[in-house]
Amino acid sequence: MNAKKMNKVATIVLYTIAGIIVTILTSLLLFILVRGLPHVNWHFLTARSSSYQAGGGIGIQLFNSFFLLVITLLISLPLSTGAGIYLSEYAKKGPVTNFIRTCIEILSSLPSVVVGLFGYLIFVIQFQYGFSIISGALALTVFNLPMMTRNVEDSLRTVHHTQREAGLALGLSRWETVVHVVIPEALPGIVTGIVLASGRIFGEAAALIYTAGQSAPALDWSNWNILDVTSPISIFRQAETLAVHIWKVNSEGTIPDAMQVSAGSAAVLLVFILIFNLGARYLGKKLHQKMTSAS
């Protein structure tokens, strides 16, 4: 068989494999959406969940998911940005840098349930935060920090070295060059990574079962005391998220319409994750176009 025939066969095989994968993923997405979206309405999105009666919603769980996402990003963004800048701009090749990179690779490969158990032992028990939003956010920071750090580092490394040299030639210090030249140029990739990480945080369940808790107590929306566990903005209250709620409904099944609630919750969760992923692509493309036109 000559080279042209081999190339044609290889191309057909690769396209076939890609088509099978796309078909499987599309079928799975359509199955979840078609099965769940008919059960989604305004009452379902805003009402409290029910433990024993039919007709409950996911209002508190949905709010908990977004609130936990915000707290996690507030903790992980400064850490991942600082670590990415250090590894890209300041770290010299050597055993210390290699050790740091090895630790990042190991942490990024840990199963989320292991991170959840670690969070339970350290944040829930040792630090005595109990099952709370802060425990869940810290566990998710450990879970998500390696990916975000690597994203920041890779985005900074894509900036051509001539731009750094230009900043230094203008009399800027190394730190000023990083802040005013390198980071703005790498911003599209950094923002894309943050949005993708947000989708990962939003859909996480295993790590939160052992840290944020499995209950969603009623919230007093007139109370804005961060230390009061009945306040919506308290980081010391238990917070069952949407992903944990899906697991709980399927594992316990104590409500009559458990299948409908599970299907609707899964559809809502999938829609938001799709929004995060599509939004990451859109924001990255727009920021890249803006930076290109500005330069």
TrEMBL record:
Location(s) in or outside the cell: Cell membrane
PROSITE patterns associated with the record: ABC_TM1 (PS50928)
Protein topology in the membrane: Multi-pass membrane protein
Keyword terms: Cell membrane, Membrane, Transmembrane, Transmembrane helix, Transport
MF terms in GO: phosphate transmembrane transporter activity
Main localization, broad class: membrane
Family membership noted in the UniProt record: Belongs to the binding-protein-dependent transport system permease family. CysTW subfamily.
Designated name of the protein: Phosphate transport system permease protein PstA
Species name: Streptococcus danieliae
Lineage: Bacteria, Bacillati, Bacillota, Bacilli, Lactobacillales
